Amino acid sequence: MEIIRLHDFSFGYNKENVLTDIDFTVNKGDFILLCGMSASGKSTLLSCLKGCSEGNFKGDRLVLGKKAGYNEVFPCNIGYITQDPDSQIVCHSVLSELYFSGESIGMDKEKIRLKAAELSVFFGIEGLMGKTTDQLSGGEKQLLNLASVMLTSPDVLILDEPTAQLDPVGRNNLLSLLSRINKELGTAIVIAEHNTRDVISLCKSMAVIDKGKIIALGDVKSCIEKIKNHPLLRSMPAGVRLFDAIGGENFPLDITGAKQLYKAYSENNTFYDIKRENPHFSKENVIELKNVTFTYFGFDKLVINKLSLNIKKGECLFILGGNGSGKTTLLRLIAGLEKPAVGDVYKTGRIALLPQQPLLLFTKDTVKEEFCDNKASSDVIELCNISHLLSRHPTELSGGELQRCAIALLLSMDFDTLLLDEPSKGMDKESVELLGQIIKALKGNKTIICVSHDTDFAAESSDRCAMLFGGDIISLENKEKFFSGNEFFTTDGVIISKGIKDNVVSDNDLIYTVTGKYPEKSDIKIPADNPTENKKAPFPLYRKICLGLGAVTGIISLLMAGGVIPLKFPGGQYSGLLTLIVPVILLIIGLGIKNRKFTPDRGKIPTITQILVGTFTLISVPLTIALGNMLTDERKWLFISILVLIECIMPFFFLFELKRPSPKEIVLLSIMCGIAIAGREIFFFLPQVKPVAALVIISGVAFGWQAGFITGAVTMLVSNLLFGQGVYTPFQMLAMGLVGFFAGVIFRRGCNTAGLLIYGFLSVFLLYGPIMNISQALLYTNSNIKTILAAEIAGIPMDIIHGISTVAFLLLGGVQLLPVLLRAVKKSGAFK
Amino acid sequence: MKYIHPVTSLVIFLSLILFTAVIQNPLFSLISLIFAITSAVLTKGKTALKGLLYCIPLCLFSVIINVLFVNRGITVLYTLPGGNNITAEALLSGISFAVMLLGLFMWFISFSYVMSADRVLYIFSSFAPSLALLISMTLKTIPGLTDSFKRTAELYQLMGKSIKTGKLSKRIAYSIEILSSVLKLWVIKGTTTALSMKNRGYGTKKRISAKKIKMTPTDYFLLCLSLLLSGTLAVIMISGRLKFSFYPYISFEINTISVMVFLILCLLPCLTEYDFILKENLRKEERDGNNKAA
């Protein structure tokens, strides 16, 4: 039975076709492996199958025999999983995550519960049910994603490199489950994988896509024969490459088959001999570990146990080992991020660590801005082959490109040792190859230490390999000796050639023995790039004068406010603080703060519901106060204020519910709330000063008044859920919500830096501060006008500190974060 | 209390907090404080008493403010140089108020423990599914964000930009730089999350909540009982029979029924918690016994 069909289908962005003339059908029970080089259109084809929203379409998309919209998703028929296990997860608890799709499409509640129970048994994840999603490992997260998608019993599962981020154990687990799903439930599976090693024996058919066209379709053997000598084959398992090189009757699906093929070939032909130069290491040790012991949980459970290791200058050392063998901990010890409990780590030179998410290293708008303008940087840019990427925004780059840029960036900072943590994880084969080339070029000059599961990568790039087990190094050998000595933990090339031909280490070696040549280096075309000069502006005189004047007037107005300089102000002593505005403006000019403009892309006319709800609030609040005033109790003001709070908060939540926020909106909101709460922990070194107000203001500007209020209120609610509730919760919710609300109202047509800073100070000083001070008076004293005034006046110094810190946060961080949010909003079209 | 249905526990706690805050009667404040402490200690153990210590300065502050700013009352203890009188009534009223405050704090300690995030989410999800989803997603992003931040801070440390040592201005600048790169990363991750939500049918229909926590007969009984008790108490309070006025001299009425009703209401959290601990201990003994026998 036909489930999805793309007929005569073309797709592209901006006139350029990514897919052309596609005719692709998925039938019930299919298990299709989709292969292609990177940027060949694999992922695009998969997202067109499941229904994607942006781009130019041509041709038909048929789902269950009926013509369907190009961007129509069918949650009951098509399940889709991508490679990042973590960001696909939506909810906090495992159970809500499992229920998510059922709850979204309004399935019967009983059925959801029953289905979830069945699935958790089928997937073997019952043990995870009581947990929260952040406690799971990557493999468990991906299983949960799969289970959650399966809740609606889809007819077809579309998987875009689902195992790229997983370790070997998690990968095998997921693949065997996919095979069971296909066999037992008859669910069709379309999977794209860059590591085809195990999938090729599981799948029933294969499709090869190249430059947006399907060039081979059918069973695995015929496909491989059709694409003979295609560079894509380099990323295939050793057996397939061997078959491609020497041909034969039987297609080797697994290692045994490949071994038989190789043996048969050896009987009639002679092999080419592999010549290998022995690497010369310098005698000098860069890093020495002596009897290092490390533990997170006390001496019963040692992570690293009496480990000794000498790392030579200029070598490339790979540390291999299974899950939980302590690889990452060892790397952290070498980097100096952890201190050993016993033993010593000696280091010479500077050490750099390449993060698994290289994007974290980039803070500027283009890659180019990160590099200094000197010869050293232009050399590393050449070396890492990234000169064509310099003018791009870091977020537009693919994983491999970003990784190369990050390496170049680290090298330009002049490091002697480079630490890599699972650099081949989530990368396609070409990126790994390019990385290998960079490592080869760096060797001798820089020391490289790499932690990995990937034996193929180690066999290609390393000088020496170390096997880590139980916290100690079990063997440390040159790579030839290491891999030929191992029987299980080694490359396919070694296993296939064992007993037939010596000196084979990598899969490339294996192919060399039969063809006499190594694959050519992959090259990237480098278009010309126009470098732009980046000069530092001089420090003009007027700014110096402004700085001086600002400092002087600032001190004077503070002295006046403090009463040291006796001057009478009409509104009491503290109104002297208003004179602070003059020095603040002078300082802004003096510090050379650019007045950047931020324009949110939004046309705002209130809807009828909003007007109705607004009117209701405007009527009900005074009414409550008037009615409450007639009560005679002394505590009536607390009572009234809580009622007023509820009347003010509820309309916003009500509007939020009515609006049914789109996925992108709710995700952006949750990130802003999350970062505002996490900010409390992040700025641990500033005990009283937190960036919450600054972040709420930014989201008010970027997302609009409604979302601004929600961000403020939810931030305070959740943060009190985590740190303990009190009567103050609703007061904080309203106060912070209003800060975000007015930011959205005032800056609905955009804002500039000066306006943002002034609003930042005033909103905290005149809005958040007073509300919280009054709430304290209402809560902690027998309230009357006097105590309220006293509490307000007592709170003023704290409010000023809070206001100034908010201005500082807005100035240092806000102007950088706001464009990020505005771009995200513009790109996703949210909050219109 | 955690094995009581969230709605029932919410009703019990809210009515307790409300009456503690609203009834201006030292007797009620004292009863409330005693049971609040018992409940907090039963749920959170010794940490609850630590919390009590932290609250004492605030209560002292409240007493002092009351004494200084209120000069009603007839028993003058001392006259300040400015002419303001310190009266015994104001002092007593301040102390009574402080007792009430302490009681509130203590109730909130057990309230925060009992109404943990997942139970609050359960209540929200039934009437405000979008808001509940937003809260759930926020809770999910927090550990991830903190982790990203820590990893990035380590990278910066290796590059010589430490946020743990050095000048404060530099540390703040680096922290903000880190924060902005973490935000960028998460905005990109967010597109995947949004896609995953859309593919799983979010937005096609009105969201429902499939989670279910069973209401047992005990839950129904406790819910009805607490509603009944609070209703009675509210009627008595509005009719003015709980009046306790400090000024100009102390005068009050005692209503035995209302005291009894309030006592029972205060007992509910303690009793359910005690019952649970008792059962837990029994189970533990049984288990130990089984282990010994084996």
> Quick one: biggest sheet of chain B?
2 strands, antiparallel
Question: Radius of gyration of chain A, Cα only, in angstroms?
Answer: 32 Å
Principal-axes shape call of chain A: globular
Helical stretch tally of chain A: 28
Number of helical regions of chain B: 9
Question: What do the pLDDT scores of chain A average to?
Answer: 83
Shape of chain B: extended
Biggest interface: chains and residue counts?
Answer: A-B, 115 and 98 residues
What distance separates the N and C termini of chain A?
Answer: 42 Å
Instruction: Indicate the mean pLDDT of chain B.
Output: 86
Helicity level of chain A: 40-55%
| Structural class category of chain A | alpha/beta
Number of DSSP strand runs of chain B: 4
Q: Summarize the biggest pleated sheet of chain A.
A: 6 strands, mixed
Number of folding domains of chain B?
A: 2
Strand content of chain B: under 5%
The portion of residues forming beta strands of chain A comes to 15-25%
- The span between the termini of chain B is 33 Å
Describe the model:
- In chain A, strand 18 and strand 19 (472-478) form a beta hairpin.
- With 832 residues, chain A is of the alpha/beta class.
- In chain A, strands 6-7-8-3-9-10 form a six-stranded mixed β-sheet, with helices on both faces. A six-stranded mixed β-sheet of chain A has the order 15-16-17-13-18-19, sandwiched between helices. In chain A, strands 2-1-4-5 form a four-stranded antiparallel β-sheet, covered by helices on one side.
- The radius of gyration of chain A is 32 Å and the shape is globular.
- In chain A, helix 5 packs parallel to helix 6.
- Chain A has 28 helices and 21 strands.
- The longest helix of chain A has 44 residues, at 785-828.
- Chain B is mainly α and 294 residues long.
- Helices cover 75% and strands 4% of the residues of chain B.
- Chain B has nine helices and four strands, in the order αααββαααααββα.
- Chain B has helices at residues 6-22, 26-44, 46-69, 88-114, 117-127, 129-158, 168-199, 217-238, 256-293, and strands at 76-79, 85-87, 244-245, 251-252.
- In chain B, the strands form two sheets. Chain B has a two-stranded antiparallel sheet with strand order 1-2. A two-stranded antiparallel ribbon of chain B has the order 3-4.
- In chain B, helix 1 packs parallel to helix 8 (217-238) and helix 8 packs antiparallel against helix 9 (256-293).
- The longest helix of chain B has 38 residues, at 256-293.
- Chain B starts with 5 loop residues before the first helix and ends with a helix.
- The mean pLDDT of chain B is 86.
- At the A-B interface, strand 6, helix 2, helix 3, helix 4 and helix 5 of A face helix 1, helix 3, helix 4, helix 5 and helix 6 of B.
